[in-house]
Specification:
By secondary structure, this protein is an alpha+beta fold. The chain contains 13 helices and 19 strands. The protein is globular. It starts with a strand and ends in an 11-residue tail after the last helix.
Length: 489
């Protein structure tokens, strides 16, 4: 699936939380309704069967409870996508990545293997740390193979790891620096990899056990003068060995990473003009950067909703160069299905540490609200999505708002921007209120307490979303082409 990811280390976030977020986007010309659910241990399969590949995988007997954002329509399988388990470990799957013919020839993809449909269900209920997530997924990939190249994020209260599959059975994973953030479009992303660490202490780098032999035997190392001692290379060039550098990358992928880094590090490099350090088509954009300011929830929502505001590439701008306008694939695209920001708060009580900020539909025109993860059920407004178009659930309400606003951008965007600011502010207020009430009351049934808080948040979200839909619909109705009044005669 075409998607966009951002990962934020604990020292790079405004409150010391680890933050992980990803848009799930449908393929061109398609849309997939999504819903938020909680999977209880008794509902987790013990023998998993993939719809797409047909692979059958036996699962451990003692899964943990976890949240997920699966497809609302079951025809293509689960596609759990993003969630937090009861051990306060989060997973986001997947970022579809590019590769090259040398890798795919040496280790072909496996038609009967695992893919994005399967991974969250196979991994998240069984891991108690981000590192454990890397190792479990790596072992599954080695055994069953995969039919696609993917990047997957794993997060706990102190660490975030980024996992990338290499061919059908191989993989690498790198720990996100605590003081940095990572941006990932649909392109193999890790820039350099410390092979000596992966084959030594494994402090910040992990890989499949035979990766060095795989590289050596298939002549994948493109670094000059480093043909033999691959296990000792401190800065192995991952992109040159495993990645792509195609013309389509320069239109579809690298511009998204360029815009996110330009937004979060505006003064670190020169991003525009003929003397720019990096352009939207640069192949050497950093995988991780230390931000100029600590990153907020609002920063993440903005970059994952962006369509090149402030540049000539903005498809809605009245002042953009028409030769450049709309030439690059936006992050906030019409076929966003949802964005979820998983926030793990080290300063909160363990039962309240995990929060999921959720928005659905096209991110350019939606708002985001927080929900506690330590629950056994999700509010109906989020969980009740199906194929029926209705304002009674968050997904379809936002899909309608996005379509109306896009067609009447100049007059409707003001309503959307006010709603986005309002929902974010209300979200922070809801967290403060709930945290305070928990500290004061010390409820015996924590789960019931948080479920009630989530229901109240959902009710507030529905109220504000309905108000936005009414404003956008009224504005768009007044601009219909068949409008006429006596004063027009």
């Amino acid at each position: 699936m075409p998607c966009t990811t951002i990962l934020v280390g604990r020292e790079a976030s405004i409150d010391g939380s680890t933050l992980m977020a990803r848009n799930e986007d449908s393929g061109a010309g398609s849309f997939m309704p999504k819903k938020q659910i909680v999977v209880l241990p008794q509902d987790q399969p013990r023998l998993y069967k993939s719809v797409i590949s047909g692979v059958e995988i036996p699962l451990p007997e003692e899964p943990m409870r976890y949240t997920a954002m699966p497809n609302a329509l079951p025809e293509e399988g689960i596609w759990g996508e993003a969630g937090i388990n009861e051990a306060n470990v989060a997973m986001s799957e997947t970022e579809t990545l590019t590769s090259n013919p040398r890798v795919l020839g040496a280790d072909p993809l496996v038609k009967e293997g695992i893919g994005e449909e399967d991974m969250l269900t196979l991994v998240l209920p069984y891991i108690k740390s981000a590192r454990e997530g890397v190792l479990r997924l790596g072992s599954l990939l080695e055994k069953y193979g995969t039919y696609e190249i993917n990047g997957i994020g794993f997060q706990d209260l102190s660490e975030i790891w980024w996992f990338e599959s290499i061919g059908g059975h191989h993989w690498i994973a790198k720990r996100v620096p605590d003081d940095a953030y990572v941006v990932m479009p649909n392109q193999q992303g890790i820039d350099w990899f410390d092979m000596s660490d992966a084959y030594g202490r494994q402090a910040e780098h992990l890989c499949s056990a035979d990766l060095a032999d795989f590289i050596r035997n298939n002549h994948l190392n493109r670094m000059m003068g480093e043909e033999e001692n691959i296990e000792s290379i401190r800065r192995f060039d991952v992109r040159a060995a495993f990645g792509s550098r195609s013309d389509s990358d320069h239109v579809y992928n690298t511009p998204r990473a360029w815009y996110m880094e330009r937004y979060l590090n505006p003064s670190t490099f020169l991003w525009d003009g003929p003397d720019a350090d990096f352009t939207p088509e640069s192949d050497d954009l950093p995988w991780s950067l230390v931000p100029e300011n600590k990153i907020t929830i609002e920063d993440i929502k903005y970059v994952l909703s962006s369509y090149y505001q402030g540049t000539d590439y903005n498809p809605y701008s009245r002042h953009a160069d028409p030769k450049k306008q709309g030439m690059y694939r936006p992050i906030g695209i019409n076929r966003n299905n949802f964005v979820k920001i998983t926030q793990l708060r080290p300063y909160a009580p363990e039962a309240l540490a995990g929060i999921e900020w959720i928005a659905t539909g096209s991110n350019a025109f939606n708002g985001i609200m927080p929900f506690y993860a330590n629950v056994t059920t999700a509010p109906d407004y989020l969980s009740g999505t199906d194929g029926r178009v209705t304002t009674e659930n968050f997904y379809w309400a936002n899909r309608m708002i996005g379509a109306l606003t896009d067609a009447h951008y100049s007059t409707c965007i003001v309503h959307v921007e006010r709603y986005q600011e309002q929902t974010a502010a209300l979200g922070h207020a809801r967290i403060l209120k709930t945290d305070k009430a928990f500290a004061e009351s010390r409820p015996e049934d924590v789960t019931a307490f948080l479920e009630q808080a989530n229901r109240e948040t959902a009710e507030l979200l529905k109220e504000k979303t309905d108000e936005l839909l009414a404003r956008v619909l009224f504005t768009a109705s007044n601009e219909m082409k068949n409008g006429f009044s006596r004063s027009d005669a």
